Amino acid sequence: MKNEQELRKIEVESEEYNKLTTDEMSEVLSFKIFDKPMKELKYLLCTNYIHDQLLKENLTRTGLYQWINVFRGEVKAPRDVLDYNDYDIVQVNMSGQDIHLVGTIREQLKEQSTTKLVLNNDYTTELWGVSFDWPDTIAREVVHADMLFGTEYFQTTALTELSGRECYVIPHPAYVKRLKHLPKIENKEIITTIWRRYDAHSYIPSLAVRNHGITTQLIGYDISKDRKPYVTTTLYDYVFAGTNYFEFCNQMRESKIVYNPFTFHSYDRTTVDCAAMGVAMVTSNRTQSSNICYPHTCVDPFDVKKSREMINKLNNDKDFYDLVVKTAQEKSEFYNHSNSKLRYFTALYESLKKGRIPSRNIKRKKELVRGVGDDALSLSSKSIERKNEKKN
Fold it and tell me: I need a surface site. Which of 152, 186, 273, 381 has the fewest CB within 10 A?
């Protein structure tokens, strides 16, 4: 690796820069953004809700908390932060309980502070309606961030509309090196289907995995989130409740085939885990990581015919099976620490050059035209009037 003096002189996007390794590029960007080497950077993930389970797992789980490993930083609640100005990067996740923190932290940063405030979203847009309140509230908060990013395309398009500025696609990192070095587990004659509490998609997937001549199991199941547990528990040979990350990984690694029919548009860290561990998978084409890691076996989660064809081919064609596994392991490097850091720094560098742009100020240009039907607000006011009339 080139020394510090050599890297400080290199201009971003120059011919010399493009010849550097991934880590050297990140080092150059660290000097350009922070005027210091990466090893000296101080990173903070700030949140009102700290996932103790992820800390107990020694930050091994793929996802948001993996940034702490990438930057060798820490996670703290706002009450435990003495001065945000002490950090080079403060990152906030756009969750319902934390979205207000962006403005709060910006107010506490000094005018000439070198701290970079980053806001990310990893909530699939299908859940925005139940996760957030008014769009105007979000728009007023996101303007305070130096950089906005989402973990997959559809999140970024929504955030771009809210903010009036560019939002970058930066998937959360995975500890790929560790996942690839896990001891091998001998495959069992099992097809494992992954259950998600968000969509509870289990009925149609059961039609895709049955009658292949091997055991079927549903994992990650949460009976409290299922409207019809008395049906779901009969659709598979075995149904297992959610467990910790290590056991979950073992459940996938012992399977001959894993079926991941998630119906929402997501980055999907589970697919990254399977790819890095070398698990054969048929997976949803609605998730970003599936399209990258499993191009041969991406299917629509409602396409029973195509899903069955892919499962059958993996089950009976060893050459195809080996190709899927090999491709997945190679593509999983897209999410490793080094590549994730470079994407993060590149986006931050570009965003800082453009500057923070205020959210759009939307103004009505014409009078509203009333269409056919009963307006909900009018109906509610009429209902109140009728109740008052009855009282009188």
Answer: 186
Exposure on the CB side of residue 290, measured as CA atoms within 13 A? 23
Strand partners, 90: 44, 117
Q: Which is nearest to 293 in space by CA: 248, 251, 330, 320?
A: 330
SS3 334: helix
135-144 confidence digits (pLDDT tens)? 888 888 999 9
Sheet holding 215-221, edge to edge: 238-241, 215-221, 188-194, 255-260, 281-284, 298-299
Q: Across the chain, what does the average pLDDT equal?
A: 93
Other C-beta atoms closer than 10 Å to the C-beta of 287 total 27
Residue 379 has pLDDT above 90, yes or no: no
Residue in 126, 392, 150 with CA at minimum distance from that of residue 284: 126
3-class DSSP assignment, residue 220: strand
* pLDDT for the residue numbered 386: 60
Q: Beta strand pairing status for 168-169 and 238-241? A: unpaired
CA-closest candidate to residue 5, choices 23, 27, 33, 20: 27
Burial category of 284 from C-beta neighbours within 10 Å (exposed 0-12, middle 13-18, buried 19 and up): buried
> Closest Cα to residue 91, out of 43, 59, 139, 51?
43
What is the C-alpha to C-alpha distance for residues 364 and 356, in angstroms, rounded to an integer?
25
Q: What's the pLDDT band for 358 if we cut at 50, 70, 90?
A: low
User: pLDDT tens-digit profile of 258-291?
Assistant: 999 999 999 999 999 999 999 999 999 999 999 9
pLDDT score, position 389: 63
Distance linking the first and last C-alpha atoms of the chain = 84
Instruction: Tell me the two tokens of residue 86.
Output: 């002490």
| pLDDT of the residue at 365 | 77
Neighbours of 390 (CB within 10 A): 7
Q: Which residues contact 211 (CB under 8 A, 6 or more apart)?
A: none
CA distance 110 to 364: 36
Give me the domains of the chain, ranges plus CATH numbers: 41-173+337-354 (3.40.50), 176-334 (3.40.50.2000)
